[in-house]
Design goal:
- With 88 residues, this protein is α+β, with helices and mostly antiparallel strands.
- Helix content is 57%, strand content 12%.
- It has helices at 2-12, 34-54, 70-87, and strands at residues 20-25, 58-62.
- The protein has a two-stranded parallel ribbon with strand order 1-2.
- The longest helix has 21 residues, at 34-54.
């Protein structure tokens, strides 16, 4: 809801939002336990709400094992982002 309100404020200022990024999405292949399956189901519920509320394309960026710090990790994150965009 905070992001939605920010989008409305930006719109009021003449700035149109074109894309929503959902960050730290659990990849299906790592959800091997009940805990992670439940978290993934919760994320799916919120992703549906995001789709309904924003009415914009949603880029789903997966949860990364390590924090994106430094050029090497940034390149890994960029490659992951590229794959994600191609899949969606």
């Amino acid at each position: 809801m905070e992001s939605y309100r920010a989008m409305l404020d930006l719109k009021e200022a003449g700035i149109e939002t074109q894309l929503v990024i959902a960050n730290m999405i659990l990849p299906e292949d790592i959800c091997a336990s009940t805990f992670f399956n439940n978290r993934r189901q919760m994320q799916a519920k919120y992703l549906n709400l995001i789709n309904e509320k924003f009415g914009l394309p949603v880029l789903r960026f997966p949860l990364m094992q390590d924090e994106i710090k430094g050029l090497n990790r940034l390149n890994i994150g960029a490659a992951c982002l590229k794959r994600t965009m191609e899949e969606q």
